Amino acid sequence: MNTAFNIVAVSGGAWRPSRTLVLTEALIGALGQHLDFNVQVIELGDIARPVGGALSRSELPADVEAQLLAIEQADLLIVAAPVYRGSYPGQFKHLFDLIGQDALIDTPVLLAATGGSERHALVIDHQLRPLFSFFQALTLPIGVYASQADFDDYRITSPALQARIALAAERAAAVLGGVIDSAPRKIA
């Protein structure tokens, strides 16, 4: 019996076009090679104004509250953030400030980030992973970082990034019980 998982992907970019959204969609596509799932993509840019103006969840419109509930009820979260000045944007953090502190306990989270250069590559381990550790979420060991050099006109062109996306998807699928190819894969 196949189970369709509920995956929620949060793309933390506020602008379009967005390399963060492209990376998010690539991760969703790669997961589709291993799992049956329903996916909801939440783009921060679409809800930034109501989220930014809310000091508590009770101040959010119903459609945004529904998106927060989706985050809290996901079987797997894909969380991707752009990096500005060494960290994720404040608006991204504020979104997660509105999530119940016990709502993500044991929820697997696939972390991803995009930045202008490799200078920001440690954001996954030094910024995103601690945020989700607070929630007691299960951050997956493999995160995916992409720099501007990995894209051409908002398309992923880097073979190394494509391989990392595939590996991250395989590992995420294994956590959810998906069938994976068990052959080791060398990543450049």
From TrEMBL:
Gene3D superfamilies: 3.40.50.360. Residues 6-148 form the NADPH-dependent FMN reductase-like domain. Keywords: Flavoprotein, FMN, Oxidoreductase. SUPFAM superfamilies: Flavoproteins (SSF52218). Pfam families: FMN_red. GO terms for molecular function: oxidoreductase activity, acting on NAD(P)H, quinone or similar compound as acceptor. Belongs to the SsuE family. PANTHER family: FMN REDUCTASE (NADPH) (PTHR43408:SF2). This is FMN reductase. It comes from Pseudomonas bharatica CSV86.
